[in-house]
Design a protein that fits this description.
5-stranded mixed sheet; two-stranded antiparallel sheet; single chain; alpha/beta; 118 residues; globular
């Protein structure tokens, strides 16, 4: 059965905040079986206000900086995650589930454009 601790989620949060300081992220534990990561705002245009991201197909659907940021988020969230068992109905069951989204259902993604002070 998938399970992720509060401490593991805190570790993911800490690492992503260090790796992506220009982004505002919401990183929460979903019940006890997964981690939800929402990109609330940042410097790049994802060309969407809200979208779920299938982290298995990032390179197929995103390019450039968007692909780099989403791949980094996925790699950090998946670090230490492995298949713990196999179920006849659902296939391989991971240690925990990872959900990535751009924006939230009730709060759209906001691109923050840096201004030059002069």
């Amino acid at each position: 059965m998938p399970y992720i601790t509060t401490k593991q989620v805190a570790g993911i949060r800490e690492q992503l905040k260090k790796s992506l300081p220009a982004y505002k992220l919401s990183i929460t534990r979903e019940h006890s079986s997964g981690v939800n990561i929402s990109i609330i705002s940042g410097p790049i245009d994802f060309f969407t206000h809200h979208s779920s991201v299938n982290h298995f197909y990032i390179k197929d659907h995103y390019t450039g900086e968007a692909a780099r940021v989403l791949t980094l988020i996925s790699e950090v969230a998946e670090n230490g995650n492995k298949d713990v068992c196999e179920d006849a109905d659902y296939g391989k069951i991971p240690s925990w589930y990872v959900n990535i989204e751009i924006g939230k259902w009730n709060k759209p993604y906001l691109q923050i454009v840096a201004t030059v002070q002069g």
